[in-house]
Amino acid sequence: MFYDFHIHSCLSPCAENEMTPNNICNMALIKGLDIIAVTDHNSTKQLRSVDKVAGQLGLKILYGAELESSEEVHVLALFSELGKAEGFQGWIDAHMPSVPNRPDFFGDQLLMDEEDEVTGIEERLLLVSLSADLEECVEAIHGHGGKAVLAHALDRANSVTQQLGFIPPGLAYDGIELKSLEQKHRLLKSQPWIKEESTAWFFDSDAHRLIDMSEPENTITHDEVRRLWGDIL
């Protein structure tokens, strides 16, 4: 199956307002993707609308969020069930500082229904660090029934290797997200304690615009999905 497990909706202030539930799901079908995940910054509040649209279109989805740890490391939380993801929001809220958003500077944070009608605005800035370190974030994801994937692990600010300098050998992550096979080879060379065969590797878009969503290039098998999230397909 062709996938993209790192897509931002218009709830993320850094994403364009065109990233609505319908536009995301329909673009996934146009591009030939079989399964996707919307992963807004520190929020799962757009997922119910995305779930309704995906269900109408027959598109398979996981339910996600992109957390920012106290070290400013980004990690994807990916869940097999909407209820688990929405239940995780309480933990996020308890660890997120109440900093007001400045739409003129950071961008809008729009909540939409399944008709792409604006139903609310997230007033708190979502581009903030949580009061939980990376290990605590991973533990919380697992405690709520999700899987933790180290986001864009090699290529920019907010990656684990940029913020910490390395991937902690004892960190109980479930997968590593990269941009290319070249990055994978580079990471394995620089972090020799990571075992290629026993690691789940993901190549996602981190799309903030519709055009940037993945093309049908990266695949995941039913068995790989089942090992991580159970029999959801």
Question: What's the arrangement of strands in the largest beta sheet?
Answer: 1-2-3-4-7-8-9
- The ordered H/E elements are EHEHEEHEEHEHEHEH
The count of β-strands is 9
Specify the overall morphology.
Answer: globular
CATH architectural type: Alpha-Beta Barrel
Termini separation comes to 11 Å
Q: Which segments are poorly predicted (pLDDT under 50) over 5 or more consecutive residues?
A: none
Nearest-integer average pLDDT? 97
Question: Which structural category do the helix and sheet elements fall into?
Answer: alpha/beta
CATH superfamily: Metal-dependent hydrolases
Number of helices: 7
Q: The biggest beta sheet, please?
A: 7 strands, mixed
Number of domains: 1
User: Radius of gyration in whole Å, from Cα?
Assistant: 16 Å
Q: Fill in the CATH topology.
A: TIM Barrel
Beta content: 15-25%
CATH class: Alpha Beta
Residue share in helices? 25-40%
